[in-house]
Design brief:
By secondary structure, this protein is mainly β. The protein has a single domain (19-73, 164-476), classed as 5 Propeller (Tachylectin-2, Chain A). The chain has helices at residues 26-29, 47-55, 169-175, 286-290, 429-441, 467-476; strands at 79-91, 102-113, 131-137, 143-148, 150-151, 157-158, 184-193, 196-210, 215-227, 239-246, 250-259, 262-269, 278-284, 299-303, 307-310, 328-333, 338-344, 347-348, 365-371, 382-386, 399-406, 415-424, 449-454.
């Protein structure tokens, strides 16, 4: 099935795009984002009892319902790689019906897709800035991926989620994406509520290169897309947009948890110093029923001194995880009654982090944190496993790994199913072009990989790190200047 033949009008106005020249730092542009999420709950002195109480109020994302399948991401129907790889189960498997295969939607960032007018095999550039896929998991353990993107009026591939294009302020207010100009979306996390699918979309604008890797973009906010009919084929999805946040400091939606009457979201901060710590925000689910053009006034922030406060307040927020990740996952482990956060700091063997965090042993590590409540306190981070691309000696100096997260619908009891992505990067325009040519040929890179991992035994004490543990955490978790 050729996804690139579908009509862009299902998402918004079609428009033409010129074939761009790869910009300086383009390989790291492909290198997406990482973060975490949360919800409120009491401290479990009796884990099994509290697991039943808290778990009953939490959307568990179909935990274990597709555990007989292991996700894989080969070239499929013109799709040949993408990063991010968020997933949300769309349906639980029906043990009676032969048609009851479990379904999930996958959200990818910059993606290589087939371009019209060429019969060449392999990857084609330029990529589209996001794509999706519907996976099916059959009862006999077969996993199938069906990718989707869109095409413009000239038949050229474009992203599945395109920013709504408007010509006047009134139309912009009606759409709800605000008047800030940006160029494209990268997906963040997503969730289901009352049969509808909601996707956080990071608003990205082209900009001058910045930071140690000279990345040529800036972030301007987050939109929330609402898909009213996710059970239908994606080409027929009815999509509406609303503003979730605007500005260049705080970005909610890096991961979501639906619990009781709120949507909880870890929010990463970008303070311009290269660090991306996470805070916690939430939104009353009633706001989704009303669906105003701008949802940001309904946000609340977990603060240092006063608990939950109205509005998005990054300067007053409590930093819950001080290390640097803009993608992650948070899930509730019912067996022990605690929250688990899984993530990785983007890392490369040749680019050590500054200060104490530059220890060689942390390169390529996927981390685990635990908490009794999503408001924290969160434990010191524990090493979960090292991404194998950075565990070899010597590691390729141009390999860059990131985007680790867990997918509970594919995990058996007592384990985590974790995906991650590795990419190539260059430090100059010439080197970026060289690495892009390598990336077009390296089929093992720039696509998600999956691994099953046992959940490590929880430490003692489970949720209150000792001073030594706090010191060890502060030695490896760079705390940004506030």
């Amino acid at each position: 099935m050729r996804r690139s033949g579908e009509d862009v009008r299902a998402a918004g106005t079609s428009r033409r795009r010129a074939r761009p020249r790869p910009p300086f730092g383009v390989l790291l542009l492909l290198a997406g984002l990482a973060a975490a999420t949360g919800c409120a709950g009491g401290s479990p002195r009796h884990p099994a009892r509290d697991a039943e109480r808290v778990g009953a109020a939490v959307d568990a994302r179909g935990a274990g319902t597709q555990a007989h399948c292991t996700p894989s991401f080969p070239d499929t129907d013109g799709w040949s790689g993408g990063d991010a790889a968020w997933s949300v189960p769309l349906a639980a498997p029906d043990p009676v019906s032969a048609q009851g295969a479990g379904r999930s939607v996958w959200l990818f960032g910059d993606s290589f897709v087939a371009r019209g007018g060429t019969d060449a095999k392999g990857r084609a550039y330029p990529f589209v800035h996001n794509s999706i896929a519907i996976s099916t998991c059959t009862h006999d353990g077969r996993f199938r991926l069906e990718p989707h993107w869109r095409v413009d009026e000239d038949g050229a591939p474009i992203a599945f989620f395109e920013p709504p294009r408007v010509t006047d302020d009134a139309a912009a207010d009606a759409i709800g994406s605000g008047l800030d100009r940006f160029d494209y979306y990268w997906p963040l996390d997503a969730f289901l509520w009352r049969g509808e699918l909601y996707v956080a979309l990071l608003c990205v604008a082209k900009g001058p290169p910045r930071g140690p890797f000279q990345l040529p973009f800036r972030l301007t906010g987050v939109d929330l897309a609402r898909i009213e009919n996710p059970a239908e084929p994606p080409a027929s999805w009815r999509i509406r947009h609303a503003t979730l946040a605007r500005g260049d400091l705080a970005f909610p939606g890096a991961a979501f948890v639906v619990a009781r009457d709120h949507l909880y979201a870890f929010t990463f901060l970008d303070e311009g110093d290269g660090h991306t710590p996470r805070i916690l925000t939430r939104l009353a689910l009633a706001a989704l029923e009303d669906w105003p053009p701008d949802l940001s006034p309904a946000l609340e922030t977990w603060t240092d001194a006063e608990g939950w406060q109205p509005g998005l307040r990054p300067k007053q927020a409590r930093i819950l995880m001080p290390d640097d990740a803009t993608e992650s996952s948070v899930l509730f482990d019912r067996t022990v009654g605690e929250w688990l956060a899984v993530y990785a700091e983007p890392s490369a063997a040749s680019v050590p982090k500054p200060g104490a965090a530059a220890s060689k042993g942390s390169t390529g590590m996927v981390w685990l944190r635990r908490a009794a409540r999503l408001e924290g306190p969160w434990s010191a981070r524990e090493p979960l496993f090292r991404m194998p691309e950075l565990a070899v000696e010597p590691a390729d100096p141009n390999v860059f790994c990131y985007a680790a997260k867990a997918h509970p619908q594919f995990a058996r009891e007592g384990e985590l199913l974790v995906t991650w992505v590795c990419n190539l990067f260059g430090r100059s325009e010439h080197e970026s072009l060289v690495q892009l040519r390598r990336l077009l040929e390296r089929e093992d890179l720039y696509r998600p990989h999956a691994a099953r991992l046992p959940i490590p035994p929880r430490p003692t004490p489970p949720h209150r790190p000792t001073p030594a543990a706090d010191a060890a955490s502060s030695a490896t978790d760079p705390i940004p200047a506030r």
